[in-house]
Amino acid sequence: MYGVDPNLFMNGVLAAVLATGALVLVATVLAAWLGCRGRVMSYLYMFTALFVTFGAVVGVLGFRGRGSDARPWHLFLDMKYQAKYTSQGQSRYFADGRSSRLPVEGTVPFDGTDYAADAGRHAAPNPDFLKADPRYYTGVANAAAKGPDGAPAKPAWVTTETAVALRFKPHGHWFGVRVVPPTIPPEKSVEPRLRGRWVGARVWPVKQSAAVTVRSTKLNETYWVNNLPPTAVERAGGWEALLKRGQTQFDRHCAVCHGASGRGGGGELAYGIVGAYGLSVPPANVVAPEIQTQPDGQLFGTVTNGKGAMPGYGHKVRDVLDRWAIVAYVRELQFAYGTPAVK
Ligand code: HEC
Questions:
Q1: pLDDT the model gives residue 322
Q2: 256 Cβ closer than 6 Å to some ligand 1 atom
Q3: Ligand 1: distance of its center to the CA of 283 in Å?
Q4: What sign has the CA pseudo-torsion 269, 274, 276, 279?
Q5: Is the CB of 225 under 6 A from ligand 1?
Q6: Whose CA is nearest to atom 17 of ligand 1?
Q7: Were both Cys, which of 69, 104, 195, 283 would link to 264 (CB 3.0–4.6 Å)?
Q8: Which positions fall inside the Cytochrome c domain (predicted)?
Q9: pLDDT at residue 254, rounded to an integer
Q10: 189 is in which domain, residue-wise?
Q11: pLDDT above 90 as % of the chain
């Protein structure tokens, strides 16, 4: 907006005025020393007084644009300076010396704080209040497993290869199959004998030609809990009860957008009511392969905290067990959809 930095400009003007003041002061001192008298002298005194006052004001208030750590002047005190108790402060009014009162016995904490245990009211704190098991309460297995961007590390699908050695010796005593993990060296092989004879199983070096490789893929746990915690199944009273509970909760909270089948979609293909009315981001298809391959903890995280355009449901589905039940039911929907990516 300005061609010149306004701070710099004003400070230039101030410096010029102060320099003029200094000159006038020197001139006044010189003139008084040389014995000047009369009208000139009174002008000089007047200007000196003006400039010195101005200099003193600038000296105290400073140049423009300068920061200061000093406490500001309050001619009328702000409200924050009124007399009050700060949290955890001390009070001489109450007999126990605390400024805050304890909650009424039996108060249910909103945020997981066990006030009663904090106050030493009971010896064994309720684990639900303390949320002592992060796997169950947050779906997080290893909170430190984060990518360079600070986002939870992607689940790692690890493929292991196992060699199976086959060898038959039809007229002798050899036959049989032995699974050979490629890492076991041949000298560690086991050759069981039965009644003094070799009966077959033998660890075969992988390099020998008859080895067949079996590939298996599994999900290595990183940030999210891989499998639904057993606590959830236990508390629900078994898988059947858990799934039933999950169905109720899913139909109540999720089906409105994702449809009772979980297939979501937008426009013509919309299964859920919101999708039908045109969201900018259509509700995801929760039975799609890319959701099937997510760890259970990640689904729990999506239900609790939301994801992208989807809001979190942690505050609505308040019971942790209900959220795990939803995860279990989503898995059932995926299975029912017929092409499970993970068996
Ligand atoms: C208000 C509508 C709405 C409701 C209700 C809703 N979702 Fe969603 N959900 C969405 C939308 C929209 C997306 C796509 C978000 C995106 O990609 O930005 C989504 C995405 C998802 C995803 C995919 C997340 C991913 O990793 O890409 C899952 C899983 C999911 N929802 C599960 C659920 C479950 C379980 C519930 C019930 C607790 C639920 N949603 C309730 C709108 C909803």
A1: 95
A2: yes
A3: 6
A4: negative
A5: no
A6: 308
A7: 283
A8: 241-334
A9: 93
A10: 156-220
A11: 27
